[in-house]
Amino acid sequence: MGFSTVQCNEFVEVLASKAPVPGGGGASALVGAVGTALGNMVGSLTVGKKKYADVEEEMWELKGKADALQKELLTLIERDAEVFEPLSKAYGMPRATEEEKAEKARVMEIVLKDACSVPMEIMEKCCEALDLIVEFAAKGSALAISDAGVGAVFCKAALQGASLNVYINTKSMADREYAQELNQKADAMLVKYTKLADEVFESVLGRLK
């Protein structure tokens, strides 16, 4: 199933079921794509307006970057499902003998790294999206400022959601040095970009109230 192309009600129904995918990672990618699109919408409502002629070129550039990020995040919904399946199977591998234990450990280390790679990428894309939303919020049409705020909130949620999918996998890794490296990268993104998202939200809220 192409989870990025099914109808919204179908995605939500499968998400609510006991099906292994989509899960929190795929949902985070979708929310990130929606958040990015909300920022992009601010740009769409800004270009072509005489009042914002001085930022027209910059808005088109920002929109181009947002277009690409939206597509990448939607692709990551599918990728998250693809990397989870081998991990799910690996957890079910037998471990009655020493040989089976060793083989399970070998396979687990491979699939855990793969399973971490996608939520890490979702986090990175959400950070890039938040950088764009900062600009959309500051320079875009005042009539759409609330949408920039919503976009920032969504991308923050997607960032935090994806981080949990990183941490649950690094927790199980035998290679603790590699796990710690990934954790530190995720930590750094959370510290910087949750703060940035909060700043955008507070700025928008201040302009609306």
Explain this structure to me?
The mean pLDDT is 95. This protein starts with 7 loop residues before the first helix and ends with a helix. The protein has one domain: Up-down Bundle (Four Helix Bundle (Hemerythrin (Met), subunit A)). With 209 residues, the chain is mostly helical. The longest helix is centred in the middle third of the chain and has 42 residues.
Short account of what is shown:
The protein has 209 residues and is mostly helical. The chain contains six helices and no strands. The model has no long low-confidence stretch (mean pLDDT 95).
Low-pLDDT parts are none
Q: Could you state the order of secondary-structure elements as H and E? A: HHHHHH
Q: CATH superfamily, please?
A: Formiminotetrahydrofolate cyclodeaminase monomer, up-and-down helical bundle
Distance between the termini: 44 Å
At the fold tier of CATH, the topology name is: Four Helix Bundle (Hemerythrin (Met), subunit A)
Look at the structure and give the CATH class. Answer: Mainly Alpha
**Structure annotation, total helices:** 6
**What is the count of β-strands?**
0
